[in-house]
Automatic annotation (TrEMBL):
Protein's recorded name: Potassium channel protein
Subcellular location: Cell membrane
Taxonomic source organism: Cloacibacterium normanense
Pfam families: Ion_trans_2 (PF07885), TrkA_C (PF02080), TrkA_N (PF02254)
Main location per the UniProt record: membrane
InterPro entries hit by this protein: K_chnl_dom, NAD(P)-bd_dom_sf, RCK_C, RCK_C_sf, RCK_N, Trk_Ktr_HKT_K-transport
Domain named RCK C-terminal: residues: 251-337
Annotated GO CC locations: plasma membrane
Signal peptide start-end: none
PROSITE patterns in the record: RCK_C (PS51202), RCK_N (PS51201)
Domain RCK N-terminal as annotated: residue spans: 111-228
Gene Ontology molecular-function annotations: monoatomic cation transmembrane transporter activity
Length: 337
């Protein structure tokens, strides 16, 4: 019984209670009136549901006593059970329970995923981007499931406080590839950074910050990147006045990718080992897909803009590709990440 949820236990108790009254009444009537089993069950259900088609002919006194017992004690219990079952169904409890069980099954096999802590504006934007790039993720938020947007209704959602270790563990932090801490409180985001790094030292943490004084603390705690949405927004608006066409072009490539992917990064460690030490041109990216290599990040973290095709592919590096959406899709099929 431990494997059943509280809802399933309640339903089981209600169904068993109803069946007990039906069967006891049927067995008693079979004994007193020598009815067939089907006739006894039929009469017992009619009595318990208050349908009633009258008393059968030659009904004995014992049969009448049994009927009185069913009407006094069984009818109320059965009607209460049927009403409770109907309420569970119409209140959506069955659907909620099904979704929770589905989440638990999905979580068992989930790994190398991303955890989004906080589902406000920043969390939603992050989720849209991850969906676009087909990256598995889990959402943690204090608000219950029904308060989320319909577009995220099929995502894995955990209702709870992301600063608590048990909630992070429930979200699979020990097997996660990255975590996005985008709660409105810098203190809460700091707790998430510390806890996630303790539970999984290899996890990559991206944190939001509201105050510039918090950036150093978050990075010291282990955050690889710290983002200040207000600062980025202000700089972006100023850039739209200084170099509007250039900024809009970059936005169209990177930020407007909520519907289309125009840029892709390929990690050399996920390529076939035969490409390590070979030239970039041997990947045959442009001839086969039409995409162009626009950047390269080497093992030391240095960036090369528009690298020459004779550049040798190194381990622990990253190749940046630019192309039209259908070209990027072809590239993803060639070199899945």
């Amino acid at each position: 019984m431990n494997r059943f949820s509280a809802l399933y236990k309640r339903i089981l108790i209600l169904v068993v209670s109803i069946l007990i009254f039906v069967l006891l009444g049927a067995l008693a009537l079979m004994y007193s009136e020598e009815m067939r089993f089907l006739d006894a069950v039929w009469y017992s259900i009619m009595t318990l549901t208050t349908v009633g088609f009258g008393v059968p002919d030659n009904f004995s006194d014992l049969g009448k006593i049994i009927t009185i017992f069913l009407m006094l004690f069984g009818v109320g219990a059965v009607l209460y059970g049927l009403t409770a079952l109907a309420l569970e169904f119409f209140n959506g409890n069955f659907a909620k329970e099904y979704k929770q069980n589905l989440i638990k099954r999905n979580m068992k096999n989930l790994e190398n995923h991303i955890i989004i802590c906080g589902f406000g504006r920043n969390g939603r934007q992050a989720a849209r981007k991850l969906i676009l790039h087909k990256k598995p993720f889990v959402i943690i938020d204090k608000k219950p499931l029904e308060n989320r947007d319909d577009e995220f209704r099929n995502t894995i959602f955990i209702h709870g406080n992301a600063v608590e270790d048990e909630i992070l563990i429930k979200a699979g932090v020990e097997k996660a590839n990255g975590i996005i801490a985008c709660l409105p409180s810098d203190a809460d985001n700091l707790f998430i950074v510390i806890s996630s790094k303790e539970l999984n030292p290899k996890i990559k943490v991206i944190s939001r910050a509201s105050n510039s004084s918090t950036i150093k603390k978050l990075k010291t705690a282990g955050a690889e990147n710290v983002i200040m949405p207000d600062k980025i927004g202000g700089e972006h608006m100023a850039s739209l006045l200084i170099t509007p066409d250039l900024v809009e072009f970059i936005d169209n490539i990177v930020l407007e990718g909520t519907k289309k992917i125009n840029v892709l990064e390929i990690y050399t460690d996920k390529l076939s080992k035969k490409f390590i030490g070979k030239k970039l041109e041997e990947l045959q990216i442009f001839p086969k897909t039409g995409c162009k290599i626009v950047g390269y990040k080497d093992v030391h973290g240095e960036y090369i803009i528009n690298p020459d095709e004779s550049k040798l592919i190194e381990p622990n590096s990253c190749i940046f590709i630019l192309g039209q959406p259908h070209q990027i899709e072809n590239l993803q099929n060639m070199y899945p990440q």
